[in-house]
Amino acid sequence: MDLGLKNRVALVAASSQGIGLATAEAFAAEGCRVAMCARNAQALEAGAEKIRKRHNAEVFTEAFDVTDPAAVTRFVAAVVSKFGSVDICITNAGGPPAKGFLAASLEDWQKAIEANLLSNIYFARDVIPHMQRKQWGRIITITSITTKQPVADLVLSNAVRAAVVGLVKSLANEFGKDGILVNNVGPGFTATDRLKELAKARSAVSGKPEQEFFDAWAAEAPLKRLGEPQELADTIVWLASERASYITGQTILVDGGMYKGL
Ligand code: NAD
Hints:
The chain is of the alpha/beta class and 262 residues long. It is built from eight helices and seven strands, in the order βαβαβαβαβαβαααβ. Helix 1 (18-29) packs across helix 8 (229-240) and helix 4 runs parallel beside helix 5 (155-175). The longest helix has 29 residues, at 106-134. The structure holds nicotinamide-adenine-dinucleotide. Nicotinamide-adenine-dinucleotide binds at residues 14-20, 38-40, 65-67, 92-95, 115, 142, 144-145, 187, 189-190, 192-195.
């Protein structure tokens, strides 16, 4: 299947590891020029260098925090100056800490809103005018299964990510006329450092070994295993491609069937 992505410019936020890194690599494998960012310059450049070598791809990197709107604006401008446009924008950031409602401080809420809601808005505001000029664009938010089904002790994610779905649907409605498709991808339990953090937090609270949590998460999905970052990346790349040209405003879960609803 020809995904029609060759030479497209794909910006992937928070991409020094995990799902973001796998997604940046998957776009490079399709012949895209790729722009990556994350806070840790060394880790980011190491990931980018692997992608360049494996796929002979053009990869631009800049280290900054996606909760800084001025830095997002500078980055998008730098990507446009280097590659001429931003065709595809994948928004992403680290997930909020695992906490119950009373354990979450107001600062936790503020940080979750900045990283997991506002950062999507910052990128969308900056990339949409470029996409409008080309009358073609894709924005895909990486959120969580919590957009469909709350997860215990993840109240920050359960609440804040729901707003992203409202944003995605609104952008899809407003900018469909400009050929801009906006969708949301929700990972289920996926084997990345984020999941290791969650296992550690739960083990610290319960005293149970971390492995028990990995086993329980795998058992929750009908496929009886964790997801791989590559499986998220493949879905995101397909959604961004010409082969998904009539899909907008949707949330697609990549969760091994874990979501229990219809
Ligand atoms: P991860 O923690 O492995 O990687 C997160 C990436 O984001 C890293 O590159 C990190 O450097 C970068 N990052 C974090 N905060 C940033 C910031 N403020 N500015 C710039 N870069 C920042 O996470 P992951 O497992 O790849 O997950 C990606 C997203 O999907 C997260 O929001 C996570 O909560 C969500 N998610 C993950 C799972 C899972 O099981 N892994 C499940 C549901 C949802």
